[in-house]
Fold:
Amino acid sequence: MVGLEGRAVTITALGTALPDREVTNDELSRSLDTTDEWIRQRTGIGARRVAAPGVSASDLGILAARQAVDRARLPPEDIGLVITASISPDQLFPPTASRIAYEIGAVRAGACDLSAGCSGFVYALALASGMVGAGIHEHVVIVGAEVISSILDWRDRSTAVLFGDGAGAAVVAPATEGGGRILGFDLGSDGAGGPLLSVPAGGSRMPATHDTVDARQHYLKMNGREVYRFATRIIGDSATRVLEQCGRRIDEIDLFVPHQANMRIIEHAAGRLGIPRERVCTNLERYGNTSCASVPLCLDEASASGRLHEGDLVLLMGFGAGLTWGACLMEWGAAGPL
Structure:
C-alpha cells in the first residue's frame, strides 16, 4: 500500500491507438468451435482489434505516446523517462520503451520496460508518480502497448476469443491548481499463482527449442477458472485498501475503471463494492481484453465522452499474470486529459 508523499502528481494528458482491423465473434466462429452467443454470455466480448502482420507493440505505443505528448503540449526533449508496460513486447530486449522514446523525439529520456501482467499500466503509473513526486523527473510518459494476437494460439478457444490489440499512454507531471492529483496506490503480487497465466517458453527457464515450438509453449496459456477466482476476490480487497489508505469511501467514487478482462469479473467486483453500473467504465464489448492498454483506453474514452469532471474521484484497477494486482485512486483535474 502506497500513499504519495512529496509534491502532488497528476496525469496531464492521454493518448490511444487501435489497429484498424476488427475481428467479430462471428468471424472467429468460422475457425473455432464457438458462437457469438457463447462468447458474449461468458465474457461480454463482441469484437476485438487485431494488428496487421508486422505491426509490433512499439508501433502502437508510438502512436499513443505521440498523441499524449501532443495533447500535453509537451516538447519531447522535456520528457525525462519513458516506461512501457506490456505482456507482448517487441523483444525480450532491448526495451520496447527505447524505440518508443526515440520515435517520439525523447532522445535524452531514460527508457525501460515493466512486466507486471495486465496490472502493468497501474504499476507504471505508480513508478512514474514516485519519480515525479520525488523531483527526479518533471515529465514521465507511460505506455501500455499490446499486440497480444502475436502470442495467441488461434486454435485454443479458451484464449483466442478473449484478447485484442491496442495501446494507451499518459503523461505524468507535477500537479497544478485545478489539475487534479493522484492520491495513492495499492500494489501486490502472489507468485504462487504464476503458472495460472503465462507464456511458458522463450525465457531462461524454458529456452526455445524444437520441442517447445512443437508443443506450442510460446503461446499464452491460462487457467481461466482460477484466474476468475483470484480476480473477483482481489479487486474488492485492493480497492478497499487504497480507499482506506487515502481516507475515502466507496460511495465517493465517481468512476471505476477496471482492467477489461471479463464482464462477469467486472460486474461481480462492482456489485461487491457497491458501485452502481453507471459509474463503471467498460469497453470490453468492442475491444476485448487489451491487457496493459485496457485501463488507459477506457480512461481516455471516459474523458472524451464527458463522463469525467473536475474533482471527480476515480478508481483504477489492474490485475493479471504474476499473479499481480494494482489499484490507484486519483482526483480528476479541471481539464484532465484533452
